[in-house]
Design brief:
The chain is of the alpha/beta class. It has helices at residues 39-64, 66-79, 82-93, 98-114, 118-121, 124-139, 162-165, 186-194, 229-247, 273-278, 303-316, 353-358, 360-373, 391-403, 417-421, 423-426, 437-445, 463-478, 493-502, 514-521, 526-538, 542-553, and strands at residues 3-6, 8-11, 14-21, 153-157, 173-178, 198-200, 213-217, 222-225, 263-267, 283-288, 321-325, 382-385, 409-414, 432-435, 482-485, 506-509. Bound molecules: phosphoenolpyruvate (PEP) and magnesium ion.
C-alpha cells in the first residue's frame, strides 16, 4: 500500500525506481560455536557464497572490460584460493559458523599479505572487499559500499561522503534519499551536481526494504513508497511539464527588466563541464579543486595532473569567468597528509586556507599549476581562498598568489561570520568576495552541516544569514567590487531572487539548478527582488522569510 514519507527536498525532479541501500561496513560476525553435526551444512554454505561472489566478480569484469576486468578477475581468484577455502573448512570443522570461518580465515591471510612487501600489501584492500562480499552474502545484508547493480536505482544511504561519491556510476543513480545531512551536506551538493532528485534528513529511509519501488519528489521532499500507477503517472507528467517550461527560457541570467546576474556553475573537475555548458552556464563560479585530491589522500596530485585539470575547465569557458578555489581540506573533507588527526573539533580547526598556510608547498604547487594552465588564454582566471577569517588571511593568500607569479583576480570566500562583518577590510586585499553560504550557515548557527537533526538551522532562508549576505554585498558595492554566492543558497530559485535583491552580483550553483534559477529570475524585476529581500529580512524565521518573499514575488 502506498505510504508517504517526508524529508527535506534538496535537488529538483522526480525519480521513480527500486531502492538500493548503500551498504555499511560489514560487522564482525559473532564468534558463536555450532554443533558438530551442522559443520557440513555450514561448509556447503560457505563454498556456495564463495562461488557466487567469484562468479559475480567475473560477470562484472566482463561488463566493465579493460583494466577493471583484470582487477575483478584477480579478486575472483582470491576468493577461490584453495588454501583459503581449506582454512575456512578447517575453522568450520572446529565449530565456527560459515561467516565467522570466512572472516577469520581472511584475517589470517590478510596478515600474511600485509607483511609480504609493498606490492602484496597493496592487495589488502582488494582482499577485504572480497571478504566483505562473502560475509555480507552469508549474513544476507547489502554489500558494503556503493550498491552492486546493473539496473538504475534510487540510492538510500545514511549520508554520502565525497569519497563514496567518487565510486558512484551516475548513469545508474536515479535519485538519492539520505537519513542524515541537510540542504548543504555533500549528498545534496552531489545530487545537484549529477542533476538527480534528492531528499535528505529522512530518518526512516533506512527501513525501506531493498528492491521496494519508491517515487522521490526532490522539490517537495516527499517519498511515496510503493506508489500507485495514478501517482506515478501524475508525478511523471508534472515533472515533464516543468522541464518543458524551463527549456523555454534561455540566455544569460537577468531579471525581467534586464538587470544582469551571471549564472555560473559549481564544478568538481572537467567531468562536470559538459553539464555546465548544456545548462548554459556563463562560467564557473566555484571549481572545488579538492575533488582532484580525493584519489590519494596521502599526497597531493602532481603539478602536471593539476595543470591538465585546470586547463580543461578554463578552456571550456574561453570568454567567461572561471573561479578556481584552492584546496579546501579538513573537517568534512579530511586529507591524511594535510589534516591534523587529533583535533577535538575539526570544523573549528585547521581547515581550508589555514591548512594551506601551514603547507605553503601545496598552495604554491596549486597556484603554479593554475598559472601554467592559464597561459595563452584570452582572459585571466580568478582564484579564491576558502575559510578566510580576516584581513590577515586575505593578505596571506594574495601574497602567496603574487609570489607564485599568478596573473589572476584574487578573491576571498565569505564562510565565517567574521569575514561578513569585516568584509570591507578584507576587500582591501582582494578583488572579489564569494559567499559560501553552506559554511556561513554552519558557523552562524553553530549547526554542523552533516547532522540532519539540525537541518532547520542550516536553512539558508534564516534571516540572520540573509543579514550577513546583505552586509557582504553592501561592502562590495561600496568598494566597487563584486560579491557572488556559490553556496547552495544560490540554487533555490526563489532565494536566488532574494539574493539578487540583497545586491549579490552573480550566482553559482550545480548545473542542474541553472534553468530553474534562470526562469524564476526572468519573471521578476530588480525592484521586486529588492522588496522580496526586505520582506525576508524583516521576518523572524526561515519559514516566515520564505513565505514573505513568496508573497512579494507572486504579487500578493
Ligand atoms: C560553502 O561553504 O558554501 C561552499 C561553497 O563551500 P563547500 O560547500 O565546498 O564547503
Ligand atoms: Mg565551504
Amino acid at each position: 500500500m502506498e505510504t508517504t514519507l517526508r524529508g527535506v527536498g534538496v535537488s529538483h525532479g522526480v525519480a521513480i525506481g527500486e531502492v538500493r541501500h548503500m551498504g555499511t561496513a560489514v560487522l564482525e560476525p559473532p564468534a558463536k560455536q555450532i554443533p558438530a553435526d551442522e559443520a557440513e551444512r555450514e561448509q556447503g554454505r560457505a563454498r556456495q557464497a564463495v562461488e557466487a561472489v567469484a562468479a559475480d566478480l567475473v560477470a562484472r569484469g566482463n561488463l566493465a572490460g579493460g583494466e577493471a576486468q583484470h582487477v575483478l578477475e584477480a579478486q575472483a581468484m582470491m576468493a577461490q584460493d584453495p588454501e583459503l577455502i581449506a582454512d575456512v573448512d578447517r575453522r568450520i570443522a572446529v565449530g565456527s559458523t560459515a561467516e565467522r570461518g570466512v572472516y577469520d580465515a581472511f584475517a589470517a591471510y590478510r596478515a600474511l599479505l600485509a607483511n609480504a612487501g609493498e606490492y602484496l600489501a597493496g592487495r589488502v584492500a582488494d582482499l577485504d572487499d572480497v571478504r566483505n562480499r562473502i560475509v555480507a552474502r552469508l549474513l544476507g545484508v547489502p554489500m558494503p559500499g556503493v550498491p552492486d547493480s546493473d539496473e538504475p536505482y534510487v540510492l538510500i544511504a545514511r549520508d554520502l561522503a565525497p569519497a563514496d561519491t567518487a565510486l558512484l556510476d551516475p548513469t545508474l543513480v536515479l535519485g538519492f534519499v539520505t537519513e542524515e545531512g541537510g540542504p548543504t551536506s555533500h549528498s545534496a551538493i552531489l545530487a545537484r551536481a549529477l542533476g538527480v532528485p534528492a531528499v535528505v534528513a529522512l530518518p526512516g529511509a533506512g527501513e525501506i526494504a531493498e528492491g521496494t519501488v519508491v517515487a522521490v519528489d526532490g522539490s517537495t521532499g516527499e517519498i511515496f513508497v510503493e506508489p500507485s500507477q495514478e501517482k506515478r503517472a501524475e508525478m511523471e507528467s508534472a515533472s515533464a511539464a516543468r522541464k518543458a517550461a524551463l527549456s523555454a527560457v534561455t540566455g544569460p541570467g537577468a531579471t525581467s527588466d534586464g538587470h544582469k546576474v551571471p549564472l555560473l556553475a559549481n564544478v568538481g573537475g572537467p567531468g562536470d563541464v559538459p553539464a555546465a555548458l548544456e545548462a548554459g552556464a556563463e562560467g564557473v563560479g566555484l571549481f572545488r579543486t579538492e575533488f582532484l585530491f580525493l584519489d590519494d589522500s596521502k599526497q597531493a596530485p602532481s603539478e602536471e595532473k593539476q595543470v591538465e585539470a585546470y586547463r580543461a575547465v578554463l578552456e571550456a569557458f574561453p570568454e567567461g569567468r572561471v573561479v578556481v578555489r584552492v584546496l579546501d581540506a579538513g573537517a568534512d573533507k579530511p586529507l591524511e597528509f594535510l589534516t591534523p588527526a587529533d583535533e577535538p573539533n575539526p570544523a573549528l580547526g585547521v581547515r581550508g586556507l589555514r591548512s594551506l598556510l601551514d603547507h605553503p608547498d601545496v598552495l604554491r604547487t596549486q597556484l603554479t599549476a593554475l598559472s601554467r594552465a592559464a597561459e595563452g588564454l584570452p582572459v585571466y582566471p580568478e582564484v579564491m581562498a576558502p575559510m578566510v577569517a580576516d584581513r590577515a588571511d586575505a593578505k596571506a593568500f594574495a601574497d602567496a598568489c603574487r609570489e607564485a607569479g599568478l596573473q589572476a583576480k584574487f578573491g576571498a570566500m565569505v564562510e565565517i561570520p567574521s569575514a561578513a562583518l569585516r568584509a570591507r577590510s578584507i576587500l582591501q586585499e582582494v578583488e572579489f568576495l564569494s559567499l559560501g553560504t553552506n559554511d556561513l550557515a554552519q558557523y552562524t548557527f553553530a549547526a554542523d552541516r552533516q547532522v540532519g537533526a539540525v537541518s532547520r538551522l542550516q536553512d539558508p532562508w534564516q534571516p540572520a544569514l540573509l543579514d550577513l549576505v546583505a552586509l557582504s554585498a553592501e561592502a562590495a558595492r561600496a568598494e566597487g567590487k563584486s560579491c557572488g554566492v556559490c553556496g547552495e543558497a544560490a540554487s533555490d530559485p526563489l532565494l536566488a531572487c532574494v539574493l539578487t535583491g540583497l545586491g549579490v552580483t552573480s550566482l553559482s550553483m550545480g548545473a542542474a539548478s541553472i534553468p530553474y534559477v534562470r526562469a524564476t529570475l526572468a519573471k521578476h524585476t530588480l525592484a521586486q527582488c529588492e522588496r522580496a529581500a526586505s520582506a525576508a529580512r524583516a521576518a523572524d524565521s526561515a519559514d516566515e522569510a520564505r513565505l514573505a518573499a513568496q508573497a512579494v514575488l507572486s504579487g500578493e
